[in-house]
Amino acid sequence: MTAASGPGGFCAAHRYGWGEGDRVVPVYAFTQGRTRPSGHELPYEALVTATERAVEHLPTLQPERRAIVRMSVQPISVVEIGANLTLPAGVARVLVSDLADAGLLVVHLPQPTTTGGGPREEILGRLLDGLRSR
Amino acid sequence: MGSAPVKSSRPGSPVWDRPLIPLKILVAGGFGVGKTTFVGPLSEIPPLSTEQVMTALSVDVDDVAAVPDKTTTTVTMDFGRIAVDDQIILYLFGAPGQDRFWFMWDELAHGAVGAVVLVDLRRLDDCFAAIDYFEDRRIPFAVAVNQFPGSPAHQDGAVRAALSLPPDCPLTWMDARQARSSLDTLVALVAHALERSSGAGQAPEDPAAPR
Which residues of B fall within a CB distance of 8 Å from A51? Predict the structure, then answer.
């Protein structure tokens, strides 16, 4: 199986200078065995974008971190990063968290929700308008 | 999928100068009901799947007995993405169908707009668990009857009764292979979620009320 081949046979990882052969250690070695942060801190759908500082530091980064910064030039979610790199979402989450702590990624978290737990009315209204206009 | 992708207002700059708003909708239902098919045509990226490592504690007892040395397994989850406007990006998550993967649903359901429960009328029993899950947690959901060739013909009322659906729960008849028909289901769900959200302040529903 090639890197990141999903059900449709899609392969994206090589576009970011990353291939399956680059990985010679178990995936959790990337994160020194850490599995934090948890889902509530950094949910699957959290979006990230690279900072200018990240682009400056690109050559100094490890391959998988470099690949993440490259794909974050456009907004991309934690779950997409994991799929593109064929890493479990939990591993992608830790890598993203590290890059954000280093000031290389900006994290766009879901906004505070209503008491019921869902998005606010104004956001739902925009979502409805956006879907209806498609 | 005509809408413009999200773009930076400063072309060429890697810095995103606008906050982005991620949203998610779950797509649930029994095994083989069409969750992957539903997500695919709607997504503006080729549908991807991600894996999540699961420990033995979460694995069904039968599986562990069958494979005594196995301590972890992986769950794959399909997802797709729709850029809604210049800030909002909606993710669709095909929730793993089997009961033993429900531990994943709690994380997926947290903060979700709502859920689409896909139903195959030939295997109605498969969707009860999903409906119960979202009802119990008061997560807005819509039921979408995915019409397969040879699906029995039923009226709305018969399906609602068979599934004991709350009166305000949207019920759509659709073909998951058609993006338009899946989009209509999402619109029905979001309209329902919005209605509940705007009504929540004045007249909270009584969870104990008969449905």
Answer: 14-15
Helices (H), chain B: 35-42, 61-66, 102-109, 128-136, 156-163, 179-199
Residue B116: which of B102, B98, B95 has the closest Cα?
Answer: B95
Q: Which residues of chain B have pLDDT under 50?
A: 1-14, 56-68, 70, 201-211
Chain A touched by B18 (CB under 8 Å): no
Structure token pair of residue B157: 């009322």
Asked whether the beta carbons of residue B190 and residue A54 sit closer than 8 angstroms, the reply is no
Q: Are the Cβ atoms of A79 and B91 closer than 8 angstroms?
A: yes
Q: What percent of chain A has pLDDT over 90?
A: 57
- Any idea which of A3-12, A27-36, A82-91, B134-143 has the lowest mean pLDDT? A3-12
How many Cβ pairs within 8 Å bridge chains A and B?
A: 175
Instruction: Compute, in degrees rounded to 10, the torsion defined by CA atoms A25, A38, B82, A114.
Output: 180
> What's at A33, amino acid-wise?
G
Stated length of chain A: 134
Contact B1 A134 (CB under 8 A): yes
Give the residue-averaged pLDDT of A81-92.
Answer: 90
- State the pLDDT at residue B160: 96
Q: Is A120 on the interface with B (CB under 8 A)?
A: yes
Q: What is the pLDDT, as a whole number, of residue B44? A: 92
A130 touches B87 (CB < 8 A): no
Mutation target to probe the B interface, by most B beta carbons within 10 A, among A78, A79, A85 is A79
B chain contacts of residue A131, beta-carbon cutoff 8 Å: 82, 84, 90, 183, 186-187, 190
Name the amino acid, one letter, at B194: L
